[in-house]
Amino acid sequence: MEKTYTDxxxxxxxxxxxLTLVSALIAMVIAxxxxxAGAAVIKRAVARSPTASLVTQASRKPASYVLPLLxxxxxxxxxxxxxxxxxxxxxxxxxxxxxxxxWLIVRIIQASGAAVVLSRPIENVSDNLAARRxxxxxxxxxxxVASLAVLIGVSLALMTIPDVRQIGTSLLASAGxxxxxxxxxxxxxxxxxIAGLQIAFSQPIRLDDVVIVEGxxxxxxxxxxxxxxxxxWDERRLVVPLQWWIEHPFQNWTRSSAQLLGTIFLWVDYRxxxxxxxxxxxxxxxxxxxxxxxxxxxQVTDFSEKSMQLRCLVSTAxxxxxxxxxxxxxxxxxxxxxxxxxxxxxRLRAEVDPPSDTEHRPPAPEQRSPTPExxxxxxxxx
Length: 382
Prior knowledge:
Layout: H1 2-10, H2 18-45, H3 50-78, H4 86-119, H5 129-159, H6 162-173, H7 176-185, H8 187-202, E1 210-213, E2 216-223, E3 227-232, E4 237-241, H9 242-247, E5 251-252, E6 260-268, H10 275-286, E7 291-303, E8 308-316, H11 319-340, H12 357-360
Antiparallel strand pairs: 1-2, 1-5, 2-3, 3-4, 6-8, 7-8
Helix pairs in contact: 2-3, 3-4, 4-5, 5-8, 10-11
């Protein structure tokens, strides 16, 4: 019976490859069935864990390719070396397997990072400093590790090709000028990579930080492996390389806390009493939910030849509320002064001296010089 089965395989159109291909097909079907059963069991086991469910769902598709490819690889390794083109097929399937494994690892890394980010939301949270710190570190490190996994996968795939491996070895052995040129060419990439690691761990900026960059006010919207996207207040986007943040100074309004002091300047006449302004400012702050209850005061900060400058300080929980409260204070104080103290708004003074007596004296009549006695006047001719 066994001989008859072997003879039947030998009579297949595929020739000597018949047994190997049938065995490979059976092994891949078994691996796929095992995968489906295992995926169902794992899905039920991690149903109560959002993190594990997210990782399992993300890795399901690449894992469905990895197991059949592993089974195929085992069959090809056990096949006779005398088969035609067996080495080429083994090498090709090895590269495909490495690509599938790299895809699986990258998806697991990305899903793990996404699970950490989802567990610490920063939206609609008043004090989200710790969450922003964790999200920034997680996203930057996730991109770095995923890029490293892809780099290792590509390297392993190339190392399976003998000719490419020899070329790479010869290039490394004769690095010389080529190595220096490659290093200089890759300097911006390496600089951004190192800057990304510095930002991830030292964290001069984090996601959703309020910053002033190049004179623009905005929030950190995205941190990639090469650049940072700042969302400007008018919904423009400012794209800044990672290395820029390490080499240049900038303002971070939420570095350790989102609390902020807001300043409102008023110019008023010297005769303006300060108590009504202080009372009005206190009333505005206490009646507004934007005020956090810490600071509310009025100070005289400057004098000029025309008026005096008042500085109103108010405190808020974050910069957005600070802007709104400052606008509200300006409107209310100006309305109060226009209504109750309009005469004490800044004005231009000028002192005019009264005219002197000489200025009102009529001009003297024109004086004629007397005619000399010896001078004869000729009468007009008739």
